[in-house]
Design a protein that fits this description.
Blueprint lengths: L2 H5 L11 H8 L7 H13 L3 H21 L4 E4 L10 H4 L4 E6 L2 H11 L5 E5 L5 H5 L2 H6 L7 E4 L8 H14 L5 E8 L7 H12 L9 H7 L4 E2 L5 E2 H4 L18 E8 L2
Parallel strand pairs: 1-2, 1-4, 2-3, 4-5
Antiparallel strand pairs: 5-8, 6-8, 7-8
Helix pairs in contact: 2-3
Amino acid sequence: MDSNELARVPGVNPNVPSASRVYDYALGGTHNFEADRQAAEFMFSLVPSTPKWLRMLRACLQTAARRMAADGFKHWVDFASGLPTGDHVHSVLPDARVLYSDTDPLTIAMSKHLLGDNPSVRYMECDIRQAGDFLRRPDVTEFLQGQRRVAFGANGITVFLPAEENRRFFRDLYDWAAPGSKLFTTFETKEAALTTPKWEQFIGMFQKMGESFHLYSLPEYLDICGPWAQDTMGVVPLSEFLGLPPGYMTEEDREGLGIEFYAVILEKR
């Protein structure tokens, strides 16, 4: 789908930036408009390492999907999925049943156009603050073929929820899932005492797009995950999760704020 076709999706306004399309642009995608590109470039001017971090997040999602596929998982449930473009989970796991979800109706509409009639991939509306109710829906049960030993994706989500809503999200998934289920998730941190005017402007851009933004310490994130257990790799920086060489992320990439992203695969034992 090119941008002209995308603009014809009912309700889509090419002149108003969308968080999912800004993310698509940051990943080098083409499902975005000039307003999205301008918003993204302004965010990059404030925090220049943003595209590098976001591309690592997507690469970690792909890596986690492959690892879980190697463990025999055939059902993937993804939350706050954004646009399911060609580098998303269903392209990495062509033999799996992949359920994407988001709460933004325009993102959902665009995503359904992108996916077409692929019977192994579905996109549904889900507010992650009500993930338990979502997982118990009859249409979700039907699509997952009654399977509750599944792989979950929660990539880049935690910063957009207050701590208690995060905690409830992880608990909802844990309570629904069968033993043996796994959950891929990521955490973003920085030095708590550090900030800059550009960083505050950067956070303000999310707020203008209707998103809240919360950072926690790594121990706080792990506490938020509640009863989930870490797999044998544990929680590691994105570069280590991907097997990148030491020094791949430079001090400049940390923007003078001590920025670090972590990835982990959690298990229900």
